[in-house]
# Entry
Amino acid sequence: MKKTVFLGALAATGLMAGAAAAQTLEDVQSRGTLNCGVTTGLVGFAAPNANGEWEGFDVALCRAVAAAVLGDPTAVEFVPTTGKTRFTALASGEIDMLARNTTWTFSRDNDLKFEFTGINYYDGQGFMVPKGLGVTSAKDLDGATVCVQTGTTTELNLADFFRKNNISYEPVPIETNAEAQQQYLAGACDAYTTDASGLAATRATFEAPADHVILPEIISKEPLGPLVRHGDNEWGDIVRWTLNALIAAEELGVSSANVSDMASAAGDSPEINRLLGTEGNLGEMIGLESDWAVQAISAGGNYGELFEKNIGENTPIGLARGLNAQWTEGGLLYSPPFR
Amino acid sequence: MASISDPQSQQDSFRLSMLLNDTRYRGLTFQFIALILIIFVMAYLGMNLVSNLATAGLTFSYDFLGDPAGYDINQALISYTSQSTHLRAAFVGVINTLLVALFGCITATIIGVTAGVLRLSKNWLVAKLMAVYVEAFRNVPVLIWILIIGTIVTISGANPRAFLTRGGSVEPESEMLFGAFAFTNRGFYSPAVNFGPGWIIVLLALIAGIVGAFLWRRHMRKTLYASGKLLPGWPTWIILIAPVVIAQLVLGSLSLSMPDVESNNFNIQGGTVIGKPFIALWLALSVYTGAFIAENVRAGIMAVSKGQTEAAAALGLRPRRVMNLVILPQALRVIIPPLISQYLNLTKNSSLAIAVGYADITATLGGITLNQTGKALECVLLLMLFYLVISLAISAIMNVYNASVALKER
# Structure
């Protein structure tokens, strides 16, 4: 009898521990910082700068969420994760959200029990080869040795691509982007494959970027986005709508330069007013202050500003907007309405 | 006698407090309490696990092992494609782990015994060189050595493209050694052996040669013990090699296929390839563990009393024979037990393989499969089971060997 009571108590403790995991917002607020999982270093997306501060396109999203929730874009604890450790880190509660160019797939969403809260970069897998090889198409890579980051969708797409085209290759599994870069430059592999944005970012850090070409084939769809754990819908909504707020802000012409002016008083556009909290109570609905979106946008700017600053055409990475333009300009970015 | 075994007085004397106060029972009491505590801690952790898995909506199942793996592996000794199952990928990893562990243990032993003996050399330079080797390798983590040696192998080898003619259109920068061997930054290429008709006879000839050589050695020993006459050792080699060479010359069933430098634009095709990841990991594990074994060997030799050496020398044995016949057999008793744990260490250290891109069990089952399926708990439990089985097996085999060299006490 006594034993049953004891075991019952144990089970209850276990359940309570489980239930606590579903209150990420309260955890973050009481802790005062957001634990955000990023890559171990991919210039333009997430990498520490010369002063040791993390910066990049994914990092900016972490900062926007921290600003929306805590009112302070610097209240972020960045946790570097590899392709292998990222999901365990998120599932175990070590990080509150993962913003690490992670591809949204069916099995990650359903089998791994995560929730993708949107897409912040529409990408596809490509190949980079040294110019000296004279390769112009990925289909010329028969027999080549290919470096690939292990534990990624890239690895599976690579196997599928070569099987589909009935050509052979030899994979070299690599743990991080930095190691892959070193192996590739040392000639241990003929080609390096990862998301095209990652290739551009990696090439930008080479001594002689012009000696390497990114092949025209894009062999997969890689919608990259932030993700959170299943089962905490409030927290998922906050991350989802922070990203949407940044996208909508660009569409509506709200930038880091004019956001404080526009938020000081209600303007002519009802949607901007609702977004910035000068009209309606959207902030209350999501469990945050009414100026949550203002904070998120002032953290680093709207989506367009973040893109241009970190990975845009004027940066060494030099990515064009392409699919990542607003829907009004032929791209795929389309935020649901704020109402 | 009667007073001690009197049942009446014993019954009277047992009280509950004796569980703590009486040394006869105290040990049992504490063991029982410790057991209960351990059971409760394990039960608590287990319940926590089950309830947290349930909260997260995850199930515990090994069904995923039957699903297609979807990824390729660069060194597979059994047939494997990306459409094979996760289970098969795990087997590929198991074989790769065992392969590098086996070769690693062999070379580590050779390196270790050599370095250990040489460290005791009277030649100052040789002894100091070995001391530097031992200290340098023992005191730097093995992962660092794996990375360093991986980098050295990558940098020191030529790119395979240097050997390629690309369909005869280009003059290759480098020629292969004898047209058959090439050391590149992606591995070592050598001819492959083709087994033509009659290869079984050649194999039998080889076995016959080995048996014959063994018999000749036995004959040598018997003659030595019987008459004191030392027969020459060179016929061993002739007996070993001659049958297989003759069989091959007569039948011609084994043929070599040379690595092909023409058909591909990127890599040498065909032949036998020992991949760079294997070479790097194998070398690193061997020299690292070899340094530890060297110290074990040195300790074993020093444990043999100096009188033995002097007595053997007084009998007229040359230094090399003193080492082989007198010192090492006695030293083995001291060397074998720590050697077992070095073999275990080497096998476990091979789990760092992914650092150089070698597809061992940790990289396939514990890395890619774990990541693609998200079945962390299942994969890690399987991994633990595998390493446990391997380690216990190595221990068991080495313990049998240890029993055979240990001091026979009669």
Remarks:
- The CA atoms of residues 159 and 243 of chain A lie 33 Å apart.
- The radius of gyration of chain A is 22 Å.
- DSSP finds 14 helices and 13 strands in chain A.
- Chain A touches chain B through 53 residues (CB under 8 Å).
